[in-house]
Amino acid sequence: MERQTSTFTSWEKLRDLDLVAFLTSIVYGPCKTSGTNYWYLSSLRTEKTASFKVNTRLNRWWDFGIGKGGSIIDFCLEYYKTELSEIVRRLSTQVFAQSPPFFPQETFSDQPALRITEVCDLSCGYLKSYLRNRGITVQLAASVVKQVHYNLNGRSYYGLGFQNDLW
């Protein structure tokens, strides 16, 4: 009986892994954020308008295009198209999984949640590959976007960014 309890605890830890960090590690960052909602182009199907939402407060996703959602485990079952035992193995061995699991917190600070740490010319191979996979030449993209490194809630990320003419 005690073995089942520890397995259940491990299962909960896997289920509560930070979904945004996981998506960033396998796909890319969000197209936009709005409060606790992060919007992505779905990696489960082809689309041009972001309709895949992750609610960071709940740590759950919903893909409006297919009408499905759930935890990180549910996402992995859809994304990898494999058995649950393989999903548990993959989640247990992901590099990002070594960070603390996601635990929603209602804390407020006078410090901004997002902080840009560097803006530079496009140099990351993953970002260049992302552009090429979407039919955008690196030369064209480099004329309108920059590579932006930023911290969000204590985690470091990078992505493509357009200059904001209002700032």
Structural account:
This protein has 167 residues and is of the alpha+beta class. The chain has helices at residues 2-15, 19-26, 72-80, 84-93, 125-133, 138-144, and strands spanning 32-34, 37-40, 52-55, 60-63, 68-70, 114-120, 146-152, 155-161. The strands form two sheets. A five-stranded antiparallel beta sheet has the order 1-2-3-4-5, covered by helices on one side. Strands 6-7-8 form a three-stranded antiparallel beta sheet. β1 and β2 (37-40) form a beta hairpin. It starts with a helix and ends in a 6-residue tail after the last strand.
**Helix content bin:** 25-40%
Tell me the structural class. alpha+beta
Largest sheet: 5 strands, antiparallel
Number of strands: 8
- What percent of residues are in strands? 15-25%
**SSE series:** HHEEEEEHHEHHEE
Quaternary organization: single chain
Q: Based on CA inertia axes, which overall geometry fits?
A: globular
Strands across the major sheet, in which order? 1-2-3-4-5
Radius of gyration: 17 Å
Report the average pLDDT across residues: 77
Indicate the low-confidence ranges by residue numbers: 1-9, 95-109
| Ends apart, CA distance between termini | 60 Å
Count of DSSP-assigned helices: 6
Annotation keywords:
globular; alpha+beta; 23% strand; single chain; 167 residues; 8 strands; three-stranded antiparallel β-sheet; five-stranded antiparallel β-sheet
What would you say about this model in short?
The protein has 167 residues and is of the alpha+beta class.
What topology emerges from the helices and strands here?
Blueprint: H1 2-15, H2 19-26, E1 32-34, E2 37-40, E3 52-55, E4 60-63, E5 68-70, H3 72-80, H4 84-93, E6 114-120, H5 125-133, H6 138-144, E7 146-152, E8 155-161
Antiparallel strand pairs: 1-2, 2-3, 3-4, 4-5, 6-7, 7-8
Helix pairs in contact: 3-4
